[in-house]
Amino acid sequence: MNNIDQLVDEIVKRIKPEVNTVEVEASGRHIHLDRPTIDALFGEGYQLTKAKDLSQPGQYACKERITIASGKNSFQNVVILGPERPAAQVEVSATDATSLGLRVPVRESGDIEGTPGIVLINGTQSVILKTGVIVAKRHIHITEEDARRFNVSKGEIVQVKIEGARALIFDDVVIRVSADYATSMHIDYDEANAVGFKKGIRGEIIKKSEK
């Protein structure tokens, strides 16, 4: 390989991460609350306190923490994510679900029909959710501009290849497109451990139609 070829190869390596891949983020167990549940746990009209912004525009972690409990086990200090949702939802990993003794389906956010319930506890106040516990389906938030660049569409199922010491290909990854998003892939801690997650890791989108 001559010097020019080496230079071109180096340039390609530098720009490829931004052009052909998306950043991957790992998410731990968390809760989304609706207004009636906030009122029941914290008092009527209570406003959750923003602690820090998250990578998705308008999304934030709250200062408040609560306990989630099943008949078998419980987790304390579970973070609440804002803003308020139309329905309360608890997102856990498959490992968490086993610890709680619950059979929790893999679902997209908001798809809670037929899911198991759980008890939410804040001090002496508690709420029994009849449904709402899910293992979040791995997904990519993507802007409309990036969706066109990657040639993917809302609801499309793709694979994502991640390099590294524990390289693997995630299958069954759903594309979620919105002008309000920042482009990034979301996985849970079980998936993060499987891939040897480190902050800043990136994944290459593979369209199934191109395999």
TrEMBL record:
It catalyses: propanoyl-CoA + phosphate = propanoyl phosphate + CoA. InterPro entries: PTAC (IPR008300). GO terms for biological process: 1,2-propanediol catabolic process. Its cofactor is Zn(2+). Signal peptide: none annotated. Pfam families: PTAC. Pathway: Polyol metabolism; 1,2-propanediol degradation. GO terms for molecular function: acyltransferase activity, transferring groups other than amino-acyl groups; metal ion binding. It comes from the Bacteria. Keywords: Acyltransferase, Metal-binding, Transferase, Zinc. It is an enzyme of class 2 (transferase). Its EC number is 2.3.1.222. Involved in 1,2-propanediol (1,2-PD) degradation by catalyzing the conversion of propanoyl-CoA to propanoyl-phosphate. Belongs to the PduL family. This is Phosphate propanoyltransferase. It comes from Brochothrix thermosphacta. The lineage of its organism: Bacteria, Bacillati, Bacillota, Bacilli, Bacillales.
